Amino acid sequence: MQAYFLRIDELILYIVKRFTIKQIRGYNLK
């Protein structure tokens, strides 16, 4: 069960990282 939660945590972290990079790129384009 712990490994499952760890996986979700990593997934959220990955999504947040991708979203932040997307935001930074969009900001730089402006």
UniProtKB/TrEMBL annotation:
It comes from the Bacteria. This is Uncharacterized protein. It comes from Filimonas lacunae.
